[in-house]
Design a protein that fits this description.
Layout lengths: L1 H27 L3 H14 L4 H13 L3 H14 L4 H17 L2 H21 L4 H13 L8 H14 L1 H14 L3 H14 L3 H13 L3 H15 L3 H13 L3 H13 L9 H14 L3 H14 L4 H7 L3
């Protein structure tokens, strides 16, 4: 009898592992409906399996089924109230729901979002994501409903203790939205100095664009391109050049380099590079070439209205 029980136990373990692996693979491939189906079936026979509940919540979240995701994460935090990540995921799903509904309705759940993130941060002193969520929440909320730059900065300080790069990026973010551009630039640059990741460069580039400083944005992108040797940087330089009508020769050269070396990992479809080239030729009053490139963009992605609208301006 024990032999058969052992065989059953091992078979069940293998089935569980296979189901989890399938769901995780589906999520990695962005096949979220399949992941949802996989975990839904598994949970019919294993309703208390925490990993399955979490994966189902993740699958719902990726599909923006916020109420369904919230329900799964609520089960998790009720079963394991001392698990910081469950509170964090619950708060994240609630927060995303708040962004998808009317502001009046959202007011009713903002308190629960805060509580969930605070609980996650309290339970895990090293939970970086929860602290980032609190930084962003306190920056984005109006003061009358609990927004606070000083509180956001206090969580940025906590982040700095855990990770210099995250701390500097968080401080840059807070100061940017608190209308202190010199301090924001300082901390974004410190993040680059300490970490130097693509994300660090992207944040500083976005800051410069927001400050209407395209020359600095291009200079920062060139530094990033030299350090990381990523083709995507070519597109970003061309984009800034086209958007702000500056350094057009450099923009054209970079966009054509992007097209020559393009692969799926670059992220931005070729059609957007065609569109940027069309912008550059329009800036040069070369309507013939501008039309050639925008037609290529429209041919590849005919459903995008922005391409059609731009063509009408040439």
């Amino acid at each position: 009898m024990y032999k058969y029980l052992l065989v059953f136990f091992i078979s069940s373990m293998c089935f569980s592992q296979t189901s989890f692996e399938n769901a995780e693979t589906f999520i990695a491939k962005k096949e979220f409906v399949k992941a949802e189906a996989e975990m839904s079936v598994f949970l019919e026979d294993n309703p208390n399996d925490l990993k399955a509940i979490e994966l189902l919540g993740d699958a719902y979240g990726h599909q923006k089924k916020w109420d369904d995701a919230i329900a799964q994460y609520q089960i998790l935090k009720q079963k394991r109230p001392n698990n910081a990540n469950y509170h964090y995921k619950y708060g994240g799903a609630l927060g995303m729901k708040a962004l998808s509904i009317s502001k009046i309705r959202a007011l009713g759940i903002i308190g629960d979002v805060k509580d969930a993130f605070h609980k996650a941060a309290q339970l895990d002193p090293k939970h970086i994501e929860a602290r980032w969520a609190l930084v962003e929440l306190y920056v984005s909320l109006p003061g009358v409903i609990g927004g606070s730059f000083s509180k956001a900065l206090s969580y940025a300080e906590q982040l700095e203790e855990l990770s210099k790069v995250d701390g500097y990026l968080a401080k840059g973010y807070v100061y940017e939205y608190d209308d202190e551009p010199e301090l924001a630039e300082k901390y974004y640059r410190l993040a680059i100095k300490v970490g130097g990741s693509v994300t660090c460069y992207e944040k500083l580039t976005e800051f410069y664009e927001g400050q209407e400083q395209p020359e600095k944005a291009i200079s920062n992108l060139e530094e990033a391109k030299q350090k990381h040797q990523r083709n995507a940087m070519h597109y970003q330089i061309g984009k800034v050049s086209a958007d702000y009508n500056i350094q057009l020769d450099k923009g054209e050269k970079c966009l054509k380099a992007y097209l020559s070396n393009h692969s799926a990992k670059d992220g931005v479809p070729k059609e957007w590079a065609y569109y940027r080239l069309s912008q550059i030729y329009k800036h040069r009053n070369n309507s013939t070439e501008a039309l050639v490139w925008i037609d290529k963009a429209i041919s590849g992605l005919p459903e995008l209205e922005v391409f059609q609208e731009f063509k009408e301006t040439i």
